[in-house]
UniProtKB/TrEMBL annotation, chain A:
One Pfam family it belongs to: BPD_transp_1
Superkingdom: Bacteria
Organism field: Cellulomonas soli
Protein name per its UniProtKB record: Sugar ABC transporter permease
Region annotated Disordered, chain positions: 1-25
Membrane topology: Multi-pass membrane protein
Subcellular location: Cell membrane
InterPro entries tied to this protein: ABC_transporter_permease, MetI-like, MetI-like_sf
Automatic annotation (TrEMBL), chain B:
Protein's cellular compartments: Cell membrane
Record-level GO cellular component terms: plasma membrane
Chief localisation class: membrane
Record-linked InterPro entries: MetI-like, MetI-like_sf
Organism (species): Cellulomonas soli
UniProt keyword Transmembrane helix, yes or no: yes
Any Gene Ontology biological process: transmembrane transport
One Pfam family from the record: BPD_transp_1
Residue ranges annotated for the ABC transmembrane type-1 domain, each copy included: 80-272
Family: Belongs to the binding-protein-dependent transport system permease family.
Protein name: Sugar ABC transporter permease
Mode of membrane association: Multi-pass membrane protein
């Protein structure tokens, strides 16, 4: 509407709605008209961005601020929260279950370097001209897209001491396997093995994409200089895939700090002697089984802080890395 | 690269290496697939065969009725329906809001839009468990607990990862194209519908599928919000089946239901494999 008003005021009553070409240039030089045009654009842009911004404020910012406040209260979620200062936080340090859940959560992260090493080797292998490599890529990727809940159920069954798949396979080699999930020494490794199995295809895919984007000339030059396969791997491949490694380390640590589904399904009671309980598992239990919303929120805030600090450190490190390369 | 090797001995060497690696990959494939194949085989066993020693690998008479009786013995069908309702409404509406926002952020003038975008991205750092409890109380005050609404409504407002991805994708579209459309006096919604949408359709499709998978496979939020069996999503239904039927040692039923929960996504993956793989590879390398 602004268009016809601005561009063709003299064309009133004319049957042609389009302005004459001669009339167009002065309009673009007119600041007021341009401002008006921009204002329309601003309004449209604001309308398009409105949904995610409103959603963000309503479902992320507000709950975050509320969580920070609620962590300072005694609160059952039904009646009004009662302010108690830092009491929840000081209580955390005396809560052996919290400390144990924290320890377990960090322990699970042993799986990250193992999984990344395996997937880098797998990606290198799948990058070669090997028969059936497309089929292999699909097979290794199937666990990634499978639902974690269903997978956890299958693995829980597979870890059964008497008739589970894992111990049946071990018995071929004359090994008498333990009852994996009922044993404090094996329950965490069992969950780690499953997590590696589940995530292997994803990191392999990312590494494969990164390896394929390394310029072949680098390898050719290295070959001319007489570099062997190991040397090429160490001096070319590993540095060139560093951005992917960085991405995977950050996302894996953030994801790993929130491990819940595996623990909740495979060990519904937190494992023998609380040895598999993770921090999120403990938060959910405290909040929704015992209605200790304030206390659970304090734990959640600690988790949020940890994620924040880890991300910050990682980005610092990455920045330094890219500086030294430049 | 291997093809460029000049000396004959090197070619022979790499051929042996490839054969060795092929064997390693094949063994690895067995490990990757074994739990899933075992799930399928168990679902077709009789209860006696499940606990038989020595183990039965292929059931003598496949018990196909596992797959018929589970629909009547457990709320699988309603679980399926609820999962579909959540996943479809979220991804369809959310994709529209996300792509409109991506268009505005990439190609339109708005003071402070980059600050808004960075703010949204920073929000990704906030872990769900931290906002989960306030959100829960918020929705319980609205009497939305034990309905699908808490799983749907927050996601209708768009997906920041998708916005990020589409915005990157739109960066490659020349501004002049859009300027031309604007000078022609096209309304911005029309520009989006006629020009932008067809251009970013492959990117939307890939993100749509990935998002659908995430929502379909979600477990934490559904398990918190849904108590009544007829209102639960499929993942919660099978998880509850697991605790309920394990005491009855009805492992064929549990494994059959787990297989059913995997199936839709596996089919989608097989059909859209290429788009999914490309989209994921791009996500990793662009970060």
């Amino acid at each position: 509407m602004t268009r016809t008003a601005d561009l063709a005021p003299q064309a009133e009553g004319s049957t042609s709605p389009s302005p004459t070409p001669a009339a167009a240039p002065p309009v673009w030089r007119d600041r007021r008209a341009r401002n008006r045009l921009h204002r329309t654009e601003h309004r449209w842009a604001a309308a398009f961005i409105a949904a995610p911004v409103i959603g963000f404020v309503l479902f992320t910012v507000y709950p975050t601020v509320y969580a920070l406040y609620a962590s300072l209260t005694r609160w059952n979620g039904l009646t009004a929260p009662k302010f108690i200062g830092l009491e929840n936080y000081t209580a955390l340090f005396g809560d052996e279950y919290f400390l144990k859940a924290m320890w377990n959560t960090f322990f699970y992260m042993i799986g990250i370097p193992i999984g990344l090493t395996l997937s880098l080797l797998l990606a290198l292998t799948l990058n070669r001209q090997i028969a059936g490599r497309t089929a292999f890529r699909t097979i290794y990727y199937v666990p990634v897209i499978s639902s974690l809940a269903a997978i956890a159920i299958v693995w829980q069954f597979a870890y059964n001491g008497d008739f589970g798949l894992v111990n049946q396979a071990l018995s071929w080699f004359g090994i008498q396997g333990p009852d994996w999930l009922q044993n404090t020494a094996t329950v965490k490794p069992a969950i780690i093995i499953m997590a590696i199995w589940k995530g292997l295809g994803y990191s392999t895919l990312l590494y494969l994409a990164a390896i394929q984007s390394v310029p072949a000339s680098l390898y050719e030059a290295a070959a001319l200089d007489g570099a062997g396969a190991l040397r090429k791997f160490r001096s070319i491949t590993v540095p060139m895939v560093r951005p992917v490694t960085f991405f995977l380390v950050v996302t894996n640590i953030i994801g790993g700090s929130q491990i819940f589904i595996e623990v909740n399904i495979m060990t519904p009671n937190g494992g023998p002697e609380f040895s598999s309980a993770s921090i999120v598992w403990y938060i959910v239990r405290k909040a929704f089984k015992y209605q200790q919303m304030g206390y659970a929120t304090a734990m959640a805030v600690v988790l949020g802080l940890i994620v924040f600090v880890i991300t910050l450190i990682q980005f610092r490190l990455n920045q330094r890395n890219s500086f030294s390369i430049d | 690269m291997a093809r460029k090797t000049t000396t004959r001995s090197a070619t022979a060497e790499s051929r042996t290496a490839n054969i060795l690696l092929f064997i390693l990959l094949a063994v690895g494939s067995v490990i990757m697939l074994a739990p899933l194949l075992w799930m399928l085989s168990t679902s077709l066993k009789t209860k006696a065969e499940v606990f038989a020693l020595p183990p039965v690998w292929i059931p003598e008479v496949p018990q196909w009725d596992t797959y018929t009786r589970m629909w009547s013995e457990a709320p699988i069908l309603t679980g399926f329906r609820n999962s579909l309702i959540v996943a479809l409404s979220v991804t369809i509406v959310g994709s529209v809001t996300s792509s409109l926002a991506a268009f505005a952020l990439a190609k339109m003038r708005l003071p402070g839009k980059n600050a808004i975008f960075i703010g949204l991205l920073a929000g990704l750092m906030i872990p769900y468990p931290m906002i989960m409890i306030p959100q829960f109380v918020m929705f319980s005050k609205l009497h939305w607990v034990d309905t699908l609404l808490p799983l749907i409504v927050p996601l209708l407002f768009g997906n920041i990862v998708m916005i990020f991805f589409l915005r990157q994708y739109l960066e490659s579209v020349p501004d002049s194209l859009i300027e031309a459309a604007k000078i022609d006096g096209a309304n911005y919604l029309t520009v989006f519908r006629v020009m932008i949408l067809p251009m970013i359709r492959p990117a939307i499709a890939a993100q749509f599928i990935l998002w659908f998978m995430t929502v379909w496979n979600d477990y934490l939020a559904p398990t918190i919000y849904l108590n009544t069996p007829s209102k639960q999503t499929l993942q919660v239904v099978i998880a509850n089946l697991n605790t309920e039927f394990a005491t009855q040692r009805d492992y064929p039923l549990i494994m059959g239901a787990s297989a059913i929960a995997l199936l839709p996504i596996l089919i989608v993956y097989v059909i859209f494999q290429r788009q999914i793989v490309e989209s994921i590879a791009l996500t990793g390398s662009k970060s």
